[in-house]
Amino acid sequence: MYFLIVEDAEKTAEQLRKGLSEMSITVDVASDGLKGLAMAREREYDLIVLDLMLPGIDGFEVVKRLREGGSTTPVMILTARDEVHDRITGLQLGADDYLVKPYSFAELCARIQALLRRGQVVQQDEIRVADLTVNFFAHKATRAGKTLELTPKEFALLSLLIRRAGEVQSRLRIAERVWNLGFEANLKIVDVKVAALRAKVDGPFEKKLIHTVRGLGYILEDR
């Protein structure tokens, strides 16, 4: 999953980024409205968490311009503005939900899950391919019942591959989703990290699940 946080309060943005990252969600952060709008137009996000009181243009204007441009990305407004007319304005402009600060992170997660279900982008708690199981909320991966000792980035990489099991993931897409790197990056890091992940996921087992598709990228599937 790939989220965008548009929030000018550095501490709040970092708390959100850290909490969501621990759920294996890749997070981009924009600190003003214009930058957030530009990023939302440039990349395909699964969800946008949007503050209202922003430099440049405010959150109302961001969501208004996104909807006018045809974007259907779910938008969660997260703000200290708790007046009823602000909530009505945000929802009428096209936001999908409105949560007032201070907030419970557990409630935020529950609302996010509801938005993703509504948009039919369901994030399963657990996915199994052959004898490999990944539980995203427990942040745990097992193969044949044995726990795999993965680094946070290895877990994020495995999460991307298993969520898209049966689909080839290009090296560039992996770099963007796992390391937030663009086309100018040295993509050899992807090959190195996939090799390290393979050693843990496939190394001790006869059946291999992570495969190279020459010239295209990598795929996780039960062949």
From TrEMBL:
Residues 124-222 bind DNA. GO terms for biological process: regulation of DNA-templated transcription. The modification 4-aspartylphosphate is found at residue 51. Gene3D superfamilies: 3.40.50.2300, 6.10.250.690, Winged helix-like DNA-binding domain superfamily/Winged helix DNA-binding domain. Pfam families: Response_reg, Trans_reg_C. GO terms for cellular component: cytosol; protein-DNA complex. Residues 2-116 form the Response regulatory domain. Residues 124-222 form the OmpR/PhoB-type domain. Keywords: DNA-binding, Phosphoprotein, Transcription, Transcription regulation, Two-component regulatory system. GO terms for molecular function: phosphorelay response regulator activity; transcription cis-regulatory region binding. NCBIfam families: cztR_silR_copR. This is DNA-binding heavy metal response regulator. It comes from Citrifermentans bremense. The lineage of its organism: Bacteria, Pseudomonadati, Thermodesulfobacteriota, Desulfuromonadia, Geobacterales.
